[in-house]
Design brief:
By secondary structure, the chain is α/β, with parallel strands linked by helices. Helices cover 39% and strands 22% of the residues. It is globular. The structure holds iron/sulfur cluster.
Length: 452
Amino acid sequence: MNSILVRKYNRAVPRYTSYPTVPYWTDEIDTAKWKQVFQNKFEEQNVTNGISLYLHLPFCESLCTYCGCNKKITTNHKVEDEYLQAIEKEWVIYRRLMNQTPVIRELHIGGGTPTFFSPVNLQRLLNFILKSSILHPRHEFSIEGHPNNTTRQHLKMLYSAGFRRISYGVQDNDPEVQRVINRIQPFENVKNATEMARTMGFTSVNFDLIYGLPLQTLESIERTINQTIQLKPDRIAFYSYAHVPWTSRAQRLFDESHLPSPEEKILLYLKGKELLIKNGYVDIGMDHFALTTDDLYQAWREGRLHRNFMGYTTSSTKFLLGLGVSSISDTGNAFAQNNKTLHEYYAAISENKLAVKKEFFLNEEDEAFRKYILDIICKSEVSFSSKHLPLLEQYSFPQLKELQKDGLVELNKQRLTVTPQGHNFLRIICSTFDLYLQRSAKDGKDIFSKAI
Ligand code: SF4
């Protein structure tokens, strides 16, 4: 990667797990409108494509200092029961809005640490939801597992419930890095958890790795990647560490002088990427690598990749219902996010109300520009509608022409194609279609304060 371009485009831009991004959503809630949109889209999608479910289980036994997730740290496992009661009740509230039996195409359990919950409790939650649903013939169930506490009993139960994908949070194998991020996780644990899943019959194992963590060096990242390659996970998400101590207070717990500089961070990424590609992984876009035997790679090749809050996915469902504290639902034309604190979440559910705290209803322009951004993330190319040309000319093309000069995109008035070099700058390319960001920039506002 060209270091001059890295410096030139070294800006804080969103990951575009949604468009418009969460900072633009409103906390003025119109419950009736959300219910109506939910019902309409559910009816439209359920029979044709099925729906996706995301279950957020927020508890963790100890705090990883780099973490930016919504989680609650506790070693008291009595919390499991109260939480399950709430999430089951939330399902019942949504279930009443569905005028037909939901067809579950995709189900993902994330956290927090989902394997904080006992296998018996996870089974209870799944039984509760699935007893009033239909399983899509090609359903895909996945879970985030912690290598330190995913047991054989967890995997056995999950496998028999239909789970075939597991994602382990590995982050970094170096003991010193693990010490400062407070995530002591010997490589043996990662190896055992991976082998257990494979032996049980899981067909896709994903590892999450992070570059840019304190004390990481080129040598340490090389060791982590080489150990990872020994275990051959089918997919690898290689994320950039986002240092935002003003929102993630735990990040204040380590010494900032231990963080790599922006230039060093890029070198860490390049070293990791080089090793992954040398060992048969393909860069399918935005921080994600896959073996050519994995479905994600096939979907990428065939232009079928989709992306939602759960990450890249191969399924065609466009309707995602998120249950649990802080979860996000996405109907395709609206987003709704639940309360972020357990206290508020429990309070709403106990009154038989939805726990929605933030919403956004997309207009035609939002939906079109969301599609442009998704096409760049998933296909590295996009075709423009002529009716958007005035907007594109005003907000997107001026910056895209600069990116074109730097060899990152090929552009004309009908379409844009990301070049191989541009693949490393996908977020920057997407940001040129972010009309909220671009309008703020034109108004002279600080466009990056809302970027993360
Ligand atoms: S990184 Fe994962 S395990 Fe660690 S505190 Fe955050 S959610 Fe919990």
